[in-house]
Amino acid sequence: MENRVHAMGSENTMEGVKFASETAANTNRRALRDIKNIIGNPHQHLAVSKRGLLEKPAAADPKNQRGFAGHRPVTRKFAATMATQPASAPPAPVGSDRQKRNADTAFHTDMECTKISDDSPLPMLFEMDDLMSSELKEIEMEDSEEVAPDIDSCDAGNSLAVVEYVDELYSFYRKTEDLSCVSPTYMSRQTDINEKMRGILIDWLIEVHYKLELLGETLFLTVNIIDRYLAQENVVRKKLQLVGVTAMLLACKYEEVSVPVVDDLILICDRAYTRADILEMERMIVDTLEFNMSVPTPYCFMRRFLKAAQSDKKMELLSFFIIELSLVSYEMLKFQPSMLAAAAIYTAQCTINGFKSWNKCCELHTRYSEEQLMDCSRMMVELHQGAAHGKLTGVHRKYSTFKYGCAAKSEPAGFLLDA
User: Fold this and answer.
1) Alpha-carbon gap, residue 381 to 383, rounded angstroms
2) Which of 87, 199, 206, 411 is 20 to 30 Å from 57 by CA-CA measure?
3) Helices (DSSP H) in 88-124: which residue ranges?
4) pTM summary value
5) CA-CA distances (angstroms) from residue 367 to 147, 148, 312, 375?
6) Pick from 325, 333, 329: nearest CA to 351
7) Helices in 62-96 by DSSP H: which ranges?
8) pLDDT of amino acid 131
């Protein structure tokens, strides 16, 4: 009897399991799926509503004027897709009654979203039009800009020419050249020296530079260090020569392979200063300039612009003669290093050719037109005319030698003053 009862209980249990399996298969869901998730069941305070994370209620959305709760914004792609698709009946829901109600709700939701997108303008329409128009303007500006001719193809095999990034290098020089400039009126703040004393100092340093056979970069950096230091510190006249020789020592340490010793500089100054004086002045200069010696000088631009002008040796020497005359003149401090270099080459071309000469290649690489260079060039012509006269003739004597091609003996381009 007991065995029979157990057998009946087992059969009832197996039938219950079989019924549950068939029910789950017919409803297309797993058993126990809707436990505590029945419609109308009180929401648990620890439960997380995924729908609440994605949608906002109708009251929280001020733009939802139709009363539709929680619809997402319609994208342009979705609206275009819905507009091209033919209207179709809602898909036949399969499953329980609750799944049928959810499917009907989803269909009506999609239809209402489509209706809203048809009645109202697409979102971000004006913003997209403005963005596209601005992009078209940028493209037109890029197309209108002229590309500078390639002047580096001949140096493709020269690793020292750094053809790969030479354009970026000079673009950086143009952006930072203001850091190397000083106020053209800084001498008014000096109490014991003036611009004439500065000219005498630099004219003397050009001769020292020539006697020591130093690099061209050293001379231009020396003058730059002197001007930047005098623009910040008040110097008495008996210390001005000390500032000059110390600036040349610093420039040599930065540019030269073989640096002159301090004792040689003492002899050059006729023992007016001691070794301790030079070392102390060196400390003061680097402290004032904050050890910043990496500044673009006119020499940096001269090499690049001469290459763009396809210059020969004669034009190169004449250009350097003109720009070294500009180093001595205090009035030329109002021009940037790149303009000084471009104007010197332009003036040299006019001097050699006897007429105005400035082609498109030079204009694109220097970024200066002939009109922009005219004021600076006229001042250079005046300096050329008076180079052989007066007290400051060091540059003229230097470039009157055969080593420098007797460039100083060229006839100045006086016709530029009449233009």
Assistant:
1) 5
2) 87
3) 97-119
4) 0.66
5) 12, 10, 22, 16
6) 325
7) 76-84
8) 57
Task: Give the range of the structural domain holding residue 111, as residue numbers without chain letter.
Answer: 72-85+103-120
Residue 307 tokens, joined: 């290459």
Of the ranges 63-77, 222-236, 304-318, 321-335, which one carries the lowest mean pLDDT score?
A: 63-77
Residue 155: CB partners within 8 Å, gap ≥ 6? 161, 163
**C-alpha triplet 320, 322, 328: angle, nearest 5°:** 100
380, part of any domain: yes
- On whether residue 156 sits in a domain, the answer given is no
Identify the three-state secondary structure at position 231. Answer: coil
- Residue 368 covered by a domain: yes
- Could you say which of 252, 273, 296 is where a domain stops? 296
Q: Using one digit for the tens of pLDDT, what is the confidence trace for 241-297?
A: 999 999 999 999 999 998 999 999 999 999 999 999 999 999 999 999 999 999 999
Same domain? 386 vs 325: yes
Helix, strand, coil: what percent of the chain each, to 5?
Answer: 65, 0, 35
Domains: count for the chain: 4
> Which residues have a Cβ under 8 Å from the Cβ of 225 and sit 6 or more positions away?
247, 250, 251, 285, 289, 293
pLDDT surpassing 50 at residue 167: yes
